[in-house]
Amino acid sequence: MDDVKTPSSEERKSALSGLGTSRKRVEDARFTQGKGNYVDDIKLKGMLFGDFVRSPVAHAKIKKIDTAAALALPGVHAVLTAADLEPLGLHWMPTLAGDKQMVLADGKVLFQGQEVAFVVGDDRYAVSDGVALVEVEYDELPVVTDPFKAEMEDAPVLREDIADQKEGAHGPRRHPNHIFTWESGDKEGTNKVLDEAEVVADEMVYYHRTHPCPLETCGCVASMDKVNGKLTVWGTFQAPHAVRTVASLISSIPEHNIRIISPDIGGGFGNKVGVYPGYVCAIVASIVTGVPIKWVEDRMDNLMATAFARDYWMHGKISATKEGKITGLWCHTTADHGAFDACADPTKFPAGFMNICTGSYDIPVAYLAVDGVYTNKAPGGVAYRCSFRVTEASYFIERMIEVLALKLGMDSAELRSKNFIKKEQFPYTSALGWEYDSGDYHQAWDKALEAVNYKKLREDQAKQLELFKSGKSRKLIGIGLSHFTEIVGAGPVKNCDILGLGMFDACEIRIHPTGSAIARLGTISQGQGHATTFAQILASEIGIPASDITLEEGDTDTAPYGLGTYGSRSTPVAGAATAMAGRKIRAKAQMIAAYLLEVHDDDLEWDVDRFVVKGAPEKFKTMKEIAFASYNQAIPGVEPGLEAVSYYDPPNMTYPNGAYICVMEIDVDTGVSEIKKVYALDDCGTRINPMIIEGQVHGGLTEALAISMGQEIAYDEQGNVMTGTLMDFFVPTAWETPNYETDFTETPSPHHPIGAKGVGESPNVGGVSAFSNAVHDAFKSFGLTQAHMPHDHWRVWKIAKDLGLHN
Amino acid sequence: MIPSAFTFYKPDSIEKAVSIMKDFGDEARVIAGGHSLIPVMKQRLTDIKHLIDLSAIEELKGINISGKSITIGAMTTQVELITNENLFKTAPVIREASLQIADPQVRNLGTIGGNVANGDPANDMPGLMQLLDATYKLSGTNGLREVKAREFYDGAYFTAREDDEILISISFDAPIGGYAYEKQKRKIGDYATAAAGVILNVDNGVCSSASIALTNLSDTPVYCDEAVSMLTGKNIDDNLLSQATKSCVEQSDPVADQRGPVEFKKYVAGIVINKALKRAFERS
Ligand SMILES: Cc1cc2nc3c(=O)[nH]c(=O)nc-3n(C[C@H](O)[C@H](O)[C@H](O)COP(=O)(O)OP(=O)(O)OC[C@H]3O[C@@H](n4cnc5c(N)ncnc54)[C@H](O)[C@@H]3O)c2cc1C
Predict the structure, then answer these.
(1) What's chain B's Rg over C-alpha atoms?
(2) pLDDT per residue over A415-427, tens digit each?
(3) Is residue B132 domain-shared with residue B48, that is, in the same domain?
(4) Nearest to A122, CA basis, from A179, A49, A66
(5) What value does the mean pLDDT of chain B take?
(6) Which residues contact A406 (CB under 8 A, 6 or more apart)?
(7) A71: which of A111, A546, B21, B183 lies 20 to 30 Å off by Cα?
(8) Interatomic CA distance for residues A470 and A184, integer angstroms
(9) B247-283: per-residue pLDDT in tens?
(10) Cα–Cα distance between B255 and B253 in angstroms, integer?
(11) Cα distance between residue A504 and residue A570, in whole Å
(12) Confidence (pLDDT) at A6
């Protein structure tokens, strides 16, 4: 018989579409054909709709709520107010940050858009008419929108419910509007270094309030089955298991009787981590009415009431020697949390991982304090495409580096290079206590500077400056540099939990008899492409083609417990669990193969998709054969079947990093800027799917562009939201989006099973600094040190005006 | 974002539409492309009980050019204004301005009639119609009448149109000379931070006629008569254009919004107007 030619290892490897392959996204077939299944696509028999009466004012006592006219309207079934929820103990709910939040206004409202009553009716139309008929009498109170005025002696007390509480969830409170003080690092040591330093730069850096604004707003369908006592909730949940546990704890429905399902999610970016009043009201309304209830926000609700991001006033001092060696960093942050502290941070970290603010630099001593305060604004403070407060931290240090460079009269690229943590210093423990896993910042930086021809860029900039000064042009060029280090993959259970739930994650794999497989995870994709990339991790681990592996997430009745997807944690944590579960499968497969080949386990070696007898390459068993054998052979001492589950508690965070450079041309008269170049080099460790990485980088850069150049949630002094629609809330279209050049270095994480670090959020973190620094850089020769974002036309114009550049 | 209930009508003649309007007075409203009206209805900023769709009325559609006289039906969409080659040949400023309105999706439905009748100072076409010295033809219970665009706007959303009147068509003479419509906005789909239209007719360096109009720089579109008389009959040079610019800015009266404070808007208005003047001059 003719030999059938066995494909080479390389050929078999490429047939798997495993790690490192730019495999096409398996999700896209349904998304690009409008066949996704989102919350609003769910239609159940007898389903009713619910929507909110929202407060038109920012701070008021509620004198009266009259629901009679609404209830009299045909099609309206119920109107819930705090008084209805109170007997159930559900008029308030705990927040993820250890505070509590009104589900429906309990005697007063604290921000514009706050949920006051929940109207339930036949359809959206009846409900909208009902909402319009609920009469609420407000007695307006003085409004606090400035976080620096919140703690003044005569400031109105916002949270009367806790006005006298001297102790909050995170330590002492010194004022009724004060939430917490969180400190990290060496205060005295840092002050001493600053006092004695040769050079100190001192600046207030504001990272304004913005919003993740996912394409799909938040919503849910709650269905209480009174026959079997089971509550099912489909919702836009970035952390379905945590929602199940929290729902059980606050409703006292036993956890096994709650099923949470996250169907397809149209973008989350942190906006869908928290628990919103809409979820609670839909659940209560379903229990009350006995039929399923749908609640879906509209765009204005989403921008006005669900979780905002940032709003950090970061006062910094950075010291250095005359030669530019950084000696210390000090930061005091005033954090505007709005009306309730509903930050989605690991519970022990009320300011998230803001203490990654030493960035990519070897800074010997540092101190950080964060004061959270209440204002009459919407609650939230979520990590908008960044790990907890990491983009704030990164923006802060990248601005401080620029400000210091100005003070030193030094090129900021050189200043960075001089202070980077060196390759040989990893694992590196920062002054604020984090252990950076790996990195080669100098390699990345040099590569980036060369790729953009940095020297030439500076020459071009100087030429343009000459043209400007001689009156031949009204444009300036700015070069924005940014080197970021993220801290993602929360996280080790020893210090990371949310409401007591350790932040591990899990993967469960079943291999079917014919050699295909299903894997279930505790995470949930919101567009990241998990079904594509996690199958690739497994393909490389267990030798089954990625296309033969189904990936399922988001159903708490079937998926193993995990803490969900945000903070770039899916690959670092669930991705690690996936690899580890795969390794368990392989270990068992090895035993089965040994039995089948009648050799000792140790006589086998793994070769892409099979176990081969050492020294006898013609003797092997493929995974496909082993899978079948696991179902039909009685192997002594080995259970039938081929399944594994891994709960992975990461030993450390991962630290993705990168070098971003933006070149921008700015018209000083109109404030209009034109992006000439964006170069983004990412080091996210092992690269699972380069195409998906590139897509993530493009998306994150576009959000960064939006945030730095115009996107904001603005309030006027009365606490009115000024940016409640997409006319004023900037979301770039293809037209505003520049071309991106992406690049990479690859420094695997030493503690992650496959060395991957996570990349989804890097471009937002690194991008904001690059864009903002470009604006600052354009004006630096005229003496600009700091101008707050967003850098929209009028604010850029104002910079030029204040510098005397207008005639 | 659900409007309150309304009765929907789709008459096929102007007479029928007018008679419905007569019956219901200010409770009735016509709808054209809906791209200004539907957003305010959804936010329940206006309560309309009777909505009259004009899209089945053929007489309201189309672009008619005879000699130098141009008539555009109120229901002509913005995309038609952009793609009509004859219109481009006779009045190219219309394409230049229309391309700067909103985005292609909005322009596919938005009409010239809805744009000018709305009375929103942020809309570009009212300014454009000042520039072209257009005449609006209205039909109501009391029959037909004509109103000059330069006399149509009383204040934001207040116009010379009576509640029972429908805008039928817009007519103007083909402009002569160089033209420009210049607009600064924050992004695609945004209204103007400041916008200006200019027509300059120049013979041997001397301006024989001119027109200048501004968008979103006051609570109505602004026709800059003072600047026009400064230019007319004069030798055009950079200096004169700067003086004219200054005069236009003085006639503007913008309000602060998320686009920026008044001082910024006035400054940018100056830049935009000057650019428009220069481009029109180059093209003259
Ligand atoms: C995102 C977005 C961005 C936009 N950006 C711009 C922009 O940059 N520049 C700009 O100019 N416009 C802009 N618009 C507005 C757009 O051009 C509208 O289409 C236009 O203003 C109104 O035209 P319409 O046909 O949609 O009118 P509708 O919305 O149907 O009607 C508007 C008003 O005019 C009345 N009306 C309509 N037709 C008549 C008639 N024949 N007689 C009497 N009354 C009538 C209606 O009753 C209503 O009060 C934007 C709109 C959107 C949604």
Answers:
(1) 19
(2) 999 999 999 999 9
(3) no
(4) A49
(5) 97
(6) A201, A780, A785
(7) A111
(8) 50
(9) 999 999 999 999 999 999 999 999 999 999 999 999 9
(10) 7
(11) 10
(12) 79
Q: Check whether residue B118 and residue B148 sit in a common domain.
A: yes
Torsion of CA A419, A421, A424, A425, to 10 degrees: 120
CATH number at residue B82: 3.30.465.10
* B251 Rama class: left (phi>0) / alpha (psi -120 to 50) / beta: alpha
A contact test, residue of B183, B245, B258, B268 with most A CBs within 10 A = B258
Query: In this structure, what CATH number is given to the domain that contains residue B196?
Result: 3.30.390.50
- In this structure, what token pair is assigned to residue A133? 């008929």
Q: Residue B34 C-alpha to ligand 1 middle, in angstroms? A: 6
Q: Are A155 and A165 in contact (CB under 8 A)?
A: no
Element of type H or E holding A671? none
Give the per-residue pLDDT at A4: 66
Ranges of chain A whose pLDDT falls below 50: 1
Residue A417 burial (CB < 10 Å; 0-12/13-18/19+)?
A: middle
- Cβ under 8 Å to A: B residues 251-270: 258-261, 264, 267-268
B172: amino acid identity, one letter:
F
Chain A residue whose CA is closest to B264: A794
One domain for residues B63 and B169? yes
Q: For A132-168, how does the pLDDT look when each residue is reduced to its tens digit (9 = 90+)?
A: 999 999 999 999 999 999 999 999 999 999 999 999 9
Same domain, B76 and B123: yes
From chain B, the residues in CB contact with A727 under 8 A are 189-191
Domain count, chain B: 3
pLDDT given at position A1? 46
Helix, strand, coil percentages for chain B (3-state, nearest 5): 40, 30, 35
Is B112 in the same domain as B162? yes
B196 plus B169 within the same structural domain: no
End residue of a domain, out of B150, B173, B196: B173
d(CA A573, CA A569): 6
Q: Is the whole model's pTM more than 0.90, yes or no?
A: yes
Q: What is the pLDDT of residue A78?
A: 97
Query: Residue ranges of chain B with pLDDT lower than 50?
Result: none
Is A124 close to B261, i.e. CB distance below 8 A?
A: no
Q: Which residue has the tokens 């998320």?
A: B258
Q: Which structural domain, as residue segments, surrounds residue B91?
A: 59-173
CA B244, CA B269: separation in Å to the nearest integer? 12
For residue B37, report the distance from its CA to the centre of ligand 1, in Å: 7
The Cα–Cα gap between A540 and A341 comes to 43
Domain shared by B40 and B74, yes or no: no
Distance CA A370, CA A355 (A): 10
Does residue B2 lie in a domain region? no
Domain-embedded: residue B97: yes
Cβ–Cβ < 8 Å for A399, A772 = yes
Query: Is the minimum distance from the CB of B170 to ligand 1 under 6 angstroms?
Result: no
Residue A100, exposed/middle/buried by CB under 10 A (0-12, 13-18, 19+)? middle
B33 CB less than 6 Å from ligand 1? Answer: yes
SS3 A329: strand
A359-369 burial, b at 16+ Cβ within 10 Å, e below that, comes to bbbbbebbbbb
| Residue A130 DSSP class | H
**pLDDT value of residue A3:** 57
B73 located within any domain: yes
CA angle A358, A361, A367 (to 5 degrees): 30
List the single residue in A with minimal CA-CA distance to B189: A727
Question: Domains in chain A, please, with CATH?
Answer: 9-36+505-648 (3.30.365.10), 39-141+217-265+272-305 (3.90.1170.50), 308-490+653-802 (3.30.365.10)
Place of tokens 């200006």: B196
Whether residue B71 lies inside any domain: the answer is: yes
Residues B17 and B95 in one domain: no
Domain final residue pick, B132, B150, B173:
B173
